[in-house]
Design a protein that fits this description.
Blueprint (H helix, E strand, L loop, with lengths): L1 H11 L11 E7 H17 L17 H17 L7 H9 L9 E7 L6 H12 L2 H10 L1
Antiparallel strand pairs: 1-2
Length: 144
């Protein structure tokens, strides 16, 4: 399994970025390390604690009705696909917590960006992240 991940990452690390800065760092976690990280993340979320974001992840609600409408619509569609009713807060929370458990995958990839590139670095990461799932799919189709 790790040989496949190493190959995927070896190729993905060559993804283009503005100015060829490749400002990302990838941390691969599995087994006990992944389990401990997932447990800590779920416990943090369950504690109700909050943190201050270094930069906004989403546009401000009051300034982005179009984005909020799209986000809500997609959220409703995702929960519908999972068979979760909007009124079922427990099931919705459990579904959300799967994010913090790498959706049950045996290996987790954590992508970080150097602070010096600020939020602009995340745009560069998009090239990297979009490549990661294409390598396994290409291998699958070659076998078919």
């Amino acid at each position: 399994m790790f040989t496949q991940i190493e190959e995927i990452l070896r190729l993905a690390l060559r993804a283009p970025s503005g100015g060829n800065t490749q400002p990302w760092h990838i941390h691969v976690v599995s087994d006990r390390t992944k389990d401990k990280l997932c447990d800590a993340a779920v416990a943090y979320v369950a504690s109700g604690k909050t943190h201050k974001e270094e930069f906004p992840i989403y546009p401000p609600k009051e300034a982005s009705a179009e984005y909020m409408d799209r986000r809500r619509k997609l959220g409703h569609q995702m929960f519908d696909l999972m068979g979760i009713k909007r009124s079922d807060k427990v099931a919705r929370t459990e579904a959300m917590l799967r994010n913090f458990k790498f959706f049950g995958a045996p290996v987790g990839l954590i992508v970080a960006v150097d602070r010096i590139v600020a939020s602009n670095g995340w745009g560069h990461v998009g090239h990297l992240v979009q490549y990661v799932p294409t390598k396994p799919l290409a291998s699958f189709y070659r076998l078919a």
